[in-house]
Design brief:
Blueprint lengths: L6 E5 L5 E7 L10 H12 L18 E2 L12 E2 L37 H14 L3 H6 L12 E3 L9 H10 L3 H10 L1 E2 L11 E2 L5 E4 L5 H5 L6 E4 L5 H4 L9 E4 H5 L1 H5 L24 H5 L2 H6 L20 H7 L2 H22 L4 H40 L1
Parallel strand pairs: 1-5, 5-10, 8-9, 8-10
Antiparallel strand pairs: 1-2, 3-4, 6-7
Helix pairs in contact: 1-2
């Protein structure tokens, strides 16, 4: 990890470096797996749910029976009796007024989830490793611009604080009070039904104070809004990664910080407090892929890039495209030329051919007959018109 340092400074209650240094625990170099943290957080949160269900008798507390078929109404059960609007109304069904819901909820639903111990420990290791990266902590929304160092470690004297004013003073000395001011500024009324369920006010998360022994530190810090207090022996991923997102701002006491190596072990030796537990190992020692790929060792082993471009050829129909047909059949050009020449020759022969006298005579006779029919028709129409006119004059006289 690029941000990992061999030593961490211990700060005094005055907010200054005390001169003591602590070796950075190996858990802060563990792989950060947001997917595992989110999965574990989602499943562990389900263990706080309370069962709920509708009444088993809801929607069935009436006497109703179907009228059967033949009444031109639906076969849904109907309320018995008379003398009221309720009688004859549909009952029981989820489509009926006053009926039960579809698939009534039961209290024996599987509310809780079991999570593997190894997964829970992996999630905690990832959350702790992310809490040491300023970029992730700032992206979570914590105001740590003036913080000297992450992870932030303070002397064990703080574990004996019993007054809130002492806790406020050391937070101001450590320049961590800006994160508390953010919490104060975020206090607002909840939008939604939660206002009716004793969850009226909401606020942002502040720092997480992690201690080894409670000599009064919980009383000193518990009344400051946004602060979460955790014992190093009982670390909880729901507190270290609220919402399933890594990057919580953590303030450690010196003894709690020193206890992380015995708790989670290093890659050289397993944990002494968790039987047979070893820290998760990185899949890659260096995750800078671009730097790895551009290194001389890798470039020597790689072949030159293939820049040949394979373009898809447009398929053409050889029956409609002569050029493609000639590629397939070179004789097609000669055959086509011969067909064109033969067609032209036949056309010229047809034009120069003398007319047949028999056909010519038949054609002339046909034309005469057509003209005679037309002339006869005209004469007949003229005679009929003259007859009608004479009849009309005779009638008028």
């Amino acid at each position: 990890m690029a941000c990992a340092r061999p030593l961490t400074t211990v700060y005094s209650e005055k907010g200054e470096a005390s001169g003591k240094n602590v070796v950075l625990p190996a858990v802060f170099k563990a792989p950060i797996r947001p997917d595992i943290v989110n999965f574990v957080h989602t499943n562990l949160r389900k263990n706080n749910r309370q069962p709920y269900a509708v009444s088993a008798d809801a929607g069935h507390q009436t006497s109703a029976e179907s009228w059967g078929t033949g009444r031109a109404v639906a076969r849904i059960p109907r309320v018995r009796g008379g003398g009221t609007h309720r009688s004859g109304q549909g009952a029981f069904g989820n489509m009926c007024r006053g009926g039960r819901m579809f698939a009534p909820t039961k209290t024996w639903r599987r509310w809780h989830r079991r999570v593997n111990v190894g997964q829970k420990r992996y999630a905690i290791c990832s959350a702790l490793a992310a809490s040491a990266l300023p970029a992730l902590v700032m992206s979570k929304g914590h105001r740590i611009e003036e913080i000297s160092e992450l992870p932030l470690v303070i002397e064990d004297k703080v574990e004996g604080y019993k007054k809130t004013k002492e806790a406020v003073l050391i937070l101001k000395k450590l320049k961590a009070w800006n994160d508390i001011k953010k919490v104060y500024a975020s206090q607002r009324m909840r939008a939604g039904k939660g206002k009716m369920r004793n969850r009226r006010r909401i606020q942002r998360r502040g720092p997480c104070v992690i201690f080894n022994e409670d000599n009064g530190i919980t009383k000193a810090f518990r009344n400051i809004p946004g602060i979460t207090l955790l014992n190093v022996n009982k670390l909880n991923v729901l507190r270290l990664a609220p919402g399933g997102h890594v990057g919580r701002f953590c303030i450690w006491t010196e003894s709690a910080f020193r206890k992380l190596d015995p708790l989670y072990g290093t890659w050289r030796k397993p944990s002494t407090l968790k039987l047979g537990y070893n820290l998760p190992i990185h899949k890659m020692a260096n995750t800078d892929l671009s730097r790895i790929m551009k290194s001389q060792e890798i470039q020597k082993a790689l072949r030159a890039p293939n820049k040949k471009v394979h373009r898809r050829v447009l398929k053409k129909n050889p029956l409609k495209n002569l050029r493609v047909m000639i590629k397939l059949n070179p004789y097609a050009k000669t055959a086509r030329r011969r067909a064109i020449l033969l067609q032209a020759k036949n056309h010229q022969a047809k034009l120069g051919k003398k007319p047949n006298p028999i056909k010519q005579k038949a054609k002339a006779d046909k034309k005469k007959r057509r003209q005679a029919r037309y002339q006869h028709k005209k004469e007949t129409e003229a005679k009929e018109a003259a007859a009608k006119e004479a009849a009309a004059k005779k009638t008028a006289a």
